[in-house]
Amino acid sequence: MSWTRYVVLLLVVLGAASVVGQGPPGGPGGANRTPAHDWSADMAMKITEPFTLASVGDVIIVRPASQSTDPGVQGAIKLVRDADVGFGNFESLIRDENKFVGPLGGSMTGTREVAADLKAMGFTLMNRAGNHLMDAGVEGLFETTRLMEDVGLVYAGVGRNLIEHPSVSISCYLGRAARLANLDRHHTQMQVRFSSRLEGCPPGDMCIAVLARSGWHALGQRVGSLYFFVNKAYSQGSVTLRSADPAEEPLVDFRMLSDRRDLERLRAAFRFVADIAMAGELDGVRSTIFPTNYSDRVRKVSRPGLRNAMQMRVLAGMLGALPPLRSWLIDTLVTGGVTLADLLADDATLDAHLNKTVAGVWHPVGTCRMGTDPLAVTTPQGRVHGVQGLRVCDASVMPSIPCANTNITTIMVAERMADLIKQDAS
Ligand SMILES: Cc1cc2nc3c(=O)[nH]c(=O)nc-3n(C[C@H](O)[C@H](O)[C@H](O)COP(=O)(O)OP(=O)(O)OC[C@H]3O[C@@H](n4cnc5c(N)ncnc54)[C@H](O)[C@@H]3O)c2cc1C
To answer: 410 alpha carbon to ligand 1 midpoint, in Å?
Structure first.
């Protein structure tokens, strides 16, 4: 069977581009035109020597092609190899047949060897856009990207670098005097930054908030929480397409605590906060201390409504009237049997609890990261790489998550971008 059946290389552009000695913007007859935008001002790197860029349109390839004896294929490969930079749009998928778990996809799915072969063919950077991106589901999309990464091929990073502040809480049943008397007041009474001192992590990399109310209902009004999170988090998740249907919600995978540093710091913080909660000085303020658990059951009874309000009032009444049974009721009805003592006794049990109960703080950032490297989505001015006239101006341009809440940070990003847009216009 001919190699050309497997290889479709549409050579779109083979450009010899040189910015050396470039003429004035506007070109011939430019006197009456609006002066063209000087794009070189946006470039962090300026090319000062003549160079050759080979840009290949739809690279649809399912098995290694560089050893093909077809002269046409070899001729096209030579053009890419001889260029200074080889850029292509890889439209098919590849998978490791021994390990891949996921849908098999259509006829455009090749073997893992294709990745190394693309590199050998002279490609430096592979874009991933095409009709077949989702043929093998999200699993196939990630598998292809992973295999390309393994051989050092760079791809565009949209949807990667999703970062949040991972949080967990420890709660206490509050004595009457410690409860929030004025329910119109915000439940957060205090927020403090502290430092984990884990090597390589910046000062103020952790945060704790003290909440004098943990829910809208009668039980929530009797429960206070010490709510703590990793302020400088390193775990990265992703936002990707769930299907080719634009009406379907995307797949958001935070992968919180996947970075060892985040898990280690949250574990240490759990022990630190438990010590605070159990301190004798608080004996007059709280009684039962328990690990907070936003289980499906807790979520269900937390939905505002008359039925839940009544249920929670009954439970709150029982907890108030039967102090000796309080711990047992909380263990049975709230935490699902998980006690603070169990968690503090064993790191593995604690880690399992942290991984199960970790939640965000509504601070997602990073999926359109600014930068000048090939994985960056936007330039330091917020322009989308490779797209004219489009900027991103929100929390998604942050390259990493700040050691701070994200509202004012986002407002400052917006102020800066507004200045840049005004500068460009003037
Ligand atoms: C419940 C909650 C509590 C928070 N509390 C705090 C806090 O106490 N302190 C703090 O610092 N930060 C807090 N944050 C985080 C902070 O609000 C965000 O980091 C910040 O708003 C992010 O700004 P943004 O512009 O990136 O996104 P957003 O503020 O979400 O703005 C996105 C905008 O796009 C609009 N939009 C979406 N889709 C479309 C569409 N298809 N067409 C047109 N418009 C569209 C939306 O309506 C929205 O106005 C909280 C967030 C949440 C959700």
So the answer is: 9
State in Å: Cα 185 to ligand 1 middle: 22
Q: Encoding tokens for residue 209?
A: 């908030």
Distance 245 CA to ligand 1 centre (A): 24
**Confidence at residue 46, expressed as pLDDT on a 0 to 100 scale:** 67
Q: Closest residue (by CA) to atom 48 of ligand 1?
A: 394
Residue 410 Cβ < 6 Å to ligand 1: yes
Number of domains, the chain: 2
Instruction: Tell which residue, 180, 190, 247, has the closest CA to residue 216.
Output: 180
How many other β-carbons are positioned within 10 Å of the β-carbon of residue 399? 14
Q: In this structure, is residue 333 part of a structural domain? A: yes
Domain of 106? 3-20+45-150
**Catalytic machinery residues:** 363
Q: Is the CB of 39 under 6 A from ligand 1?
A: no
Please name every residue paired with 193 in a beta bridge, in sequence order, or none if there are none: 207
Ligand 1 close to Cβ of residue 407 (< 6 A)? yes
pLDDT of residue 227: 95
CB-based burial label for 48 (10 Å; 0-12, 13-18, 19+): exposed
Q: Are residues 13 and 142 in the same domain?
A: yes
Say if 13 falls within a structural domain.
Answer: yes
Ligand 1 close to Cβ of residue 395 (< 6 A):
yes
- Residue where one domain finishes, among candidates 97, 121, 150: 150
Contact 164, 233 (CB under 8 A): yes
Kindly report the pTM of this predicted structure: 0.73
Is residue 193 located within the same domain as residue 324? yes
| Residue 24 confidence (pLDDT) | 31
Last residue of a domain, one of 121, 150, 179: 150
How many A from CA of 230 to the centre of ligand 1? 20
186, 397, 406: residue to mutate for ligand 1 pocket, most atoms within 8 A of CB: 406
Assess if residue 423 is contained within a domain. Answer: no
Q: Which residues of the chain have pLDDT under 50?
A: 1-33
- Give, as one character, the DSSP assignment of residue 66: T
Q: What is the pLDDT of residue 155?
A: 63
Residue 124: both structure tokens together: 């430096």
Say yes or no: 113 and 211 in one domain: no
